[in-house]
Amino acid sequence: MEHSDPIIALLGMGTAVPANRIDQADTAQRLAEALKETPDSARWAKRIFKQCGVETRYTCEPNLLQSASDCRYFPRNSLDDVPTTADRMEIYKRESVPLGLEAAKKALLDGDVDVSAITHLITVSCTGQFLPGMDTVLVTQLGLAATVNRLPLNFIGCAAGLKAICLSKQIVSGNSSAKVLIVCVELCTLHIQPSSVRESLFATSFFGDGASACIVGTPGPNHKAIFQLGREHTVLLPDSANEMIWELGDYGFDLYLSPSIPKLIGKMIPVEVERMFGEEGNPDLWAIHPGGRGIVDILQERFELTDEQVRPSLNVLRNYGNVSSATILFVLHEIRQELTRVGSRPTSGIALAFGPGLTAEMIKINYLPSAIIHKELLSGAIV
């Protein structure tokens, strides 16, 4: 990792999920019942639900736990009772703020950062929008200063959480006293489509709802184990614009995910990682955004990663699904918990996330135990 002065790091993290827990096997069965008039689609749906690597997810919409006949989001003969995009945005407006508020409070507590120290607020979401936005509501409900610099990142997709971290690092690089609060909220299940088309059923199979937050700044003597942030790298992969499409529809947002995405990532990302690490070789820690089981699998194969190295990403996918932009912080939180539990030494790594474009966001990370932080701060040494 490059030398930097001062150390810029993720000082605290927090996650939150709605109360409604979706069991994957149960949902697959209920969806198959809704698709009984199209048995080929029903069989395909049950197979993809079983193979996508998800066991449980969470949703802000309790109707998604109802029987097939009562669920307004499942395929049906008439669209009269299907929630419109306006209906879904009303739910988003009501449910997004409490989740973001919970994650933000956890991050502030975890990072031992007072709200008065926050200079910038970055809010991230691609699954809903309203104005005045979530950023303005969080300022009031968290008690942030009215002068806090607000930067909403909307409709950028799954890579936006890591993009916010990279942007925050740049902000703190220019002002070492800055403290940036990032809040990502995604209510993906609101966009489940009442369709028997395979592309819609695939998207239905593994997205979940949740929120994550973090504080980016320079550490002090009271901070716990942190991830130091190093060089960031972003790239728009060539000839891949149509592989991931997210558009506004009458019944929520319409998502198309090409089955070629894992193959493209496996082909193009090794070159980009090589540009970041060069002769350093591959790092030990891999915080991979689990955009799908296939993405994690192809990166494990290309970089010859152990099961232990990809376990945090697969654990998050299994327990929460893909929570879009919020997911990368779920993965980093899981990695930090494991490293702290085993008393790990300082360890280098990389965080990667992917989104429409196809876009790849990456940043070098370095895990620093609390004892190392205190030692470096006292000595003035640079990691």
TrEMBL record:
Record keyword Transferase present: yes
Source superkingdom: Bacteria
Keyword entries, A-Z: Transferase
Residues in Chalcone/stilbene synthase N-terminal domain copies: 9-218
One of the Pfam families matching this protein, by short name: Chal_sti_synt_N
Keyword Transferase appears in the UniProt entry: yes
All copies of domain Chalcone/stilbene synthase C-terminal, residue ranges: 235-365
Homology family: Belongs to the thiolase-like superfamily. Chalcone/stilbene synthases family.
Name used for this protein in its record: Type III polyketide synthase
Highest classification ranks of the organism: Bacteria, Bacillati, Bacillota, Bacilli, Bacillales
